[in-house]
Design brief:
The structure is a single chain. The chain folds into two domains: about 70 residues; about 130 residues. It has nine helices and no strands. The longest helix has about 50 residues.
């Protein structure tokens, strides 16, 4: 007659399921489970029968499948660490000044169009200030139109330089965020240190 220990059997089965969930089927060891319950009064054969119970019935496989599914679902709900780190880094960086911010009148294109129009007017005035053979018809008009042209060209150069700097700063931000994403994949703590450093830098920059 075989031994029967209902309470012990339940404990062994629970231990089997827990161990499978912890180490997986490949690393699972029946001997390890049997060793844990060796001093509970049941024979070795009885312990192995209890261990084989959930394994042969499919109960263990179903339990592992549920555990894996739950882990996958839980992981899916977590934010992507690299993306979260990049988002945190972006929040620490000084706000980007866009090209439209520089133009400050509804976008860059309208500003450029206005500059082109102003330069066109200056060219017309300069042409009008001279005769057909190139002689000066109105020195005052010529000087005024030339100054108008100079100011518009100066504004165009400043706008071009500001646009170039804004684009370079935007590229710089993208490089920093890409770097933080890469670091966060392998070294989350280092990424956090970088984010903290960016916060200090932004505070000093703003001050």
């Amino acid at each position: 007659m075989s031994e029967h220990h209902p309470s012990l059997r339940d404990e062994v089965e629970a231990a089997v399921l827990a161990e499978l969930a912890r180490v997986g089927p490949e690393a699972f060891s029946k001997a390890e489970i049997a060793r844990r319950f060796a001093d509970r009064g049941a024979s070795r054969a009885t312990l192995y029968r209890y261990i084989d119970g959930p394994l042969k019935s499919g109960k263990a496989g179903q339990h592992v499948a549920r555990e894996v599914k739950a882990a996958v679902e839980a992981r899916a709900k977590l934010p992507d660490p690299p993306a979260a780190a990049a988002q945190a880094a972006a929040a620490k960086l000084p706000a980007l000044v866009t090209v439209d911010d520089i133009a400050s009148s509804g976008g860059v294109i309208p500003v450029i169009e206005k500059l082109v129009g102003c330069i066109g007017i200056a060219e017309q005035l300069i042409a009008h200030a001279r005769t057909e053979d190139g002689k000066v018809r109105s020195a005052k008009l010529l000087l005024s139109a030339s100054e108008h042209m100079r100011r518009n060209l100066e504004t165009a150069v400043r706008l071009q330089e500001a646009m170039r700097q804004a684009e370079e700063m935007e590229r710089f931000h993208r490089r920093i965020l890409g770097m933080v994403r890469g670091v966060a994949r392998e070294h989350p703590e280092a990424a956090q240190a970088i984010i903290s450093g960016l916060g200090q830098l932004a505070a000093e920059w703003g001050g």
